Amino acid sequence: MGVQTAEASELRVGPPPTPPGRVTGLMVVAGAAALLAALAAHRAIVAVVGLAEDRTAPLVAIEWVVTLVALVPVVPVVAAALRARSRGRHLAAGDLVAARSEAAAGRERASIALGWALAVLLMAALLGFVAANDGAVAHTFLKWEFIQSTWRPVAEGFWINIQVSVGAEVLVLVLGLVVAIMRLVGGPAGRPLRWLSTAYVDIFRAIPSIIVLYLVGFGLALAEVPVIKDLTPLWLAIVALTLTYSAYVAEVYRAGIESLHPSQWAAARSLGLSYGMTLRTVIVPQAVRRIVPPLLNDFVGLQKDTALIGVMGVADAFTRAQLESSDVFNLTPVIVVAVLFVIITIPQARFVDRMIAREQRKSGRA
Amino acid sequence: MAFLEIDDVHKSYGSFQVLRGVSLEVNKHEVVCLIGASGSGKSTLLRTINALEPISAGRIKVDGDVVTGPGVDVNRLRRNVGMVFQSYNLFPHMSVLQNVTLAPTKVGGVGRAEAEERALELLERVGMRDKAGSYPDALSGGQQQRVAIVRALATSPQVLLLDEITAALDPELVGDVLGIVRELAADGLTMLLATHEMGFAREVASQVCFLHQGSILERGSAEQIFEDPQEERTRQFLGRVLASGRL
């Protein structure tokens, strides 16, 4: 090196400047996708509306609205086109930096259009499926008159699902914690307890809950086990689901307890708190806060498994829906049950989100 | 008879010997500073005194009572031997006041009102009374450590073990915490400190012990250790500390 003349020093050192990216290609793809999606959505909604006996004015309005909404992804395509033109002007004027920034903005708009177009396309496919086979799908699953005639018995059955869910959840919270703590008891004296706890989790996590329900529902009653044989089927369902889900929840508790740093144990013990007192006042309260999201996961699983309690002769929502379905030869009542499950799950998820957010605000971590 | 007697204490993790026969006597109202490189056994020695670490061999006596070996009521021992940790270890789910009153109310047999009154008094002393309702995560490191000291004092221990309590603090927060320890020393509280703050050790220590590979290699007054160390290892260690600007 070292031979740089005055002339050479005016030359650029380092790599050439980044050229502005291309917009047109992506824009054309996005535009094509947006138009295709809008067309598909239009055809799908026309097919769905066509299932009605007569084309009333509100139905025509729905057709129009859906088609217009499906055209929304075209808007960012237009924005991308404007940016592409602006990019060309800046490039011609030699303003590389402005051209680059316009190009980036244009590509961003085109990408947004592509994303929305794909979403519209998927929704159109779903609509098309509902209208498929001359509306057979819609008629099988979503017949308004059957919703009207069957929702009441189904909802009554769902009350049983809710009772079983809540009852089992309360018991699971207690039994799960007991099993988790048994697994954490130290020393040679705790060995049999640790062994029992491990065996319990291994066994009940492995057995499908429908089998546990069946065995508890019929077996315990058949064997005339004292106390248990006098339980109502509803309570037997609660017992069976508690047995299964305590195994899951025990593992969740254990993970939460073990996720705490050992220094929390050291701090509590150094103050003269006993092992049990440390668990109760320091470890478990912190662990419980951490395990709320995975706990909700297991609770949603438990709630869904209440749809299995029909095998032990409890007339829950799903059992009743099956009866209603076979009466009318249509699956709409079962869809009603499915919707009810969705409806109870969503608020729980939002509640947990809020709880976590509040917890973070309280401790100043927000 | 010394207040705290540590007699030939050994401690191993598997085949690794952390403490190889440490003996130390501490009288009431003494402030003993343990210095030495990381891994020399300072923290482990402190943790054997309140039985957070069981020892492999040897004996420890507090106030004439043997506190090592089976059958010792460690919970009673620990109420008498307070400890403050490097990383504060406050309970994050409890407010400052709850952190401080937990041990007195749950195991000290003190009523809630009385415990809170005393906690507020202690918090006042360290300038944290107005933070009594705050949660640890909302406090700075220095504030958390001051609360941790108060928490350890709340059971009225006769000895306080301080395990590198300023090592995790930002430099500008160290002074506040050391100021509190200085006051406690002036009040005559018996303390053992594992520390890297040589200047502070020099100022408050009645006795300085230099630990090297699990044993006390040299021991004497602060003046003796810092001005005229006898052992080559001590000289090397202090030389390195001096070179890093910490003396």
From TrEMBL, chain B:
UniProt domain ABC transporter: residue ranges: 4-238
UniProt keyword list: Amino-acid transport, ATP-binding, Cell membrane, Membrane, Nucleotide-binding, Transport
Cellular component, GO annotation: plasma membrane
Membrane topology of this protein: Peripheral membrane protein
Predominant location: membrane
Subcellular location: Cell membrane
Signal peptide: none
EC number(s) given by UniProt: 7.4.2.1
Annotated catalysed reactions: a polar amino acid(out) + ATP + H2O = a polar amino acid(in) + ADP + phosphate + H(+)
GO molecular function: ATP binding; ATP hydrolysis activity; ATPase-coupled polar amino acid-transporter activity
InterPro entries xref list: AAA+_ATPase, ABC_ATPase_HisP-typ, ABC_transporter-like_ATP-bd, ABC_transporter-like_CS, MetN_ABC_transporter-like, P-loop_NTPase
SMART domains with a match to the protein in the record: AAA
Record family assignment: Belongs to the ABC transporter superfamily.
Protein name as catalogued: ABC-type polar-amino-acid transporter
Organism of this sequence: Nocardioides albidus
